[in-house]
Amino acid sequence: MKFHVLTLFPDMVQNGLETSITGRAIERGTIGLNVVNIRDFSHDKHRHVDDYPYGGGAGMVMQPDPIYEAWTHVTQGMDQKPRVIYLTPQGRVFRQDMARDLAHEEEIIFLCGHYEGVDERVLDEIVTDQVSIGDYVLTGGELAAMVMIDAIARMVPGVLTNEESGTYESFYNNLLEYPQYTRPPVFRGREVPEVLLSGHHARIEEWRRRQSLERTLRHRPDLLEQADLSREDFSYLETLGYKRDSWTDQ
Ligand code: ADE
Q: Which of 76, 102, 132, 158 has its CA 20 to 30 A from that of 109?
């Protein structure tokens, strides 16, 4: 899987993604990262890439030509043009299922906007998907692209080790993660739940499942509507006051 990022802040993207697990995956060649500075495609001797908005108003707008040329530079010689994701609060909201689907792409291009926006014509020309990482406004698309790349990369086979593997993490099957504990057994008077010290695997599994269900009900009840719940899950949730019309057997 190769990620291309068109940006005015290449160091931010490069440095961020070359850190930690994504950095290790890049080093090993499990994922590729190609960061392209849109400013390198400016037509202006001062390397400007923005201009005043037609019709007036505050702020500046990124011009279409440098972005189009950066995209041409990335895609030239490719048989199949990759998807181009434009990061914007107006896009479809990014979720785990989208990360899982995008992890099957061979290459993806991310376009990071800045200033008050990007000339609409270049979006019409090259963008295939508009994505938001949540209902808030960032100063630019870079952090959003990095969030998406991190979430997609960890779904790519070989990026996580077995130990790091996300099988039991939040949003796997739309349930939040159960709480984790490590040594010491007592921290500032707070004890590790006794069941975890029991060595009784079936009881531990049941306790963890119930913790996941309880947390999801408390913090993200909306997720439960999509979760695969067994009869046992459903009965447990009912004791906590939850009602749903149907459940699916696992
Ligand atoms: N650019 C600015 N805000 C954003 C957001 N919430 N998601 C994606 N891109 C953005």
A: 158
Centre of ligand 1 to C-alpha 218, Å, is 28
Domains in the chain, CATH or no CATH each: 2-153 (3.40.1280.10), 173-239 (1.10.1270.20)
CA 7 – ligand 1 centroid, Å: 14
Question: Pairing mode, if any, of strands 190-191 and 186-187?
Answer: antiparallel
Query: In b/e form, how buried is each residue of 231-249, taking b as 16+ CB within 10 angstroms?
Result: eebbebbeeeebeeeebee
Q: How far apart are CA 143 and CA 161, in angstroms?
A: 25
Give me the residue label for tokens 């291009």. Answer: 109
Residue 173 pLDDT: 87
Q: Which residues of the chain have pLDDT under 70?
A: 166-170, 245-250
The pLDDT value recorded for residue 163 is: 80
Query: What pLDDT, in 10s, does the model give residues 79-100?
Result: 999 999 999 999 999 999 999 9
Collapsed DSSP state (helix, strand, coil) of residue 247? coil
Q: Are 212 and 240 in contact (CB under 8 A)?
A: no
Atom of ligand 1 nearest to the CA of 136: 6
pTM above 0.85, yes or no: yes
User: What pLDDT does residue 246 have?
Assistant: 59
Determine if ligand 1 sits within 6 Å of the CB of residue 146: no
Note the pLDDT of residue 245: 65
Task: Give the residue whose CA is nearest to atom 5 of ligand 1.
Answer: 89
Tell which one of 112, 115, 135, 137 to mutate to probe ligand 1, the residue whose CB is within 8 A of the most ligand atoms: 137
Tell me the C-alpha distance between 130 and 89, whole Å. Answer: 9
